């Protein structure tokens, strides 16, 4: 797998454009697997195959549609960084959520149909996001956020899971700009910059606990190491 490295400052990209790129690349990869791959191949998500992960991703796209059509008066209580503080990695002995997703995904729909539904749903999300009124917060999962912050959560979700999808596949991962947004959010959660020797793929994997921190990482992070993994 190849992925662009973004360690230096990069031009700011609008959240909607980041999401358009993240969704487009991820949908293309899912379609490629549906055409000539194994939907039950393992992914970087412990206990989940490609089909299970695609089902989870469809759920997040549906979350986006609900949120973008649920404007509220406020007050805003989460942003693109603080949203993730509620999502801790599951304990390695706690497989209930993993098993539940796998069971539902297995009977929900055929893989090719699931991939098409994901593409249709994410396209609808992009349309809804483009029409969302400026200055009006929206509700998602019980929290209230500005639309741009919501879109950032969707970019991060799609990009991290894109890396999961291709962890054992010879296919490209997410693009440089969405990976840069993942790094920005992780740095916010970490309370400062991430190790400069980490490329953005490494930052995403180690920041979310998908790869273990090395002794060098721990020494560089110092007291901030206690915050890792930053979310799961």
Topology:
Blueprint: H1 15-36, H2 50-68, H3 96-108, H4 111-131, E1 138-140, E2 143-145, H5 147-165, H6 176-190, H7 200-207, H8 215-221
Antiparallel strand pairs: 1-2
Helix pairs in contact: 1-4, 1-5, 2-3, 2-4, 2-5, 5-6, 6-7
Report a brief summary of the structure.
The chain is mainly alpha-helical. It has helices at residues 15-36, 50-68, 96-108, 111-131, 147-165, 176-190, 200-207, 215-221, and strands at residues 138-140, 143-145.
Describe this structure in words.
It is a single chain. With 232 residues, the protein is mainly α. It has a domain of 162 residues: dinb family like domain (Four Helix Bundle (Hemerythrin (Met), subunit A), Up-down Bundle), CATH 1.20.120.450. It contains eight helices and two strands. Strand 1 and strand 2 form a beta hairpin. Helix 6 packs across helix 7. The longest helix has 22 residues.
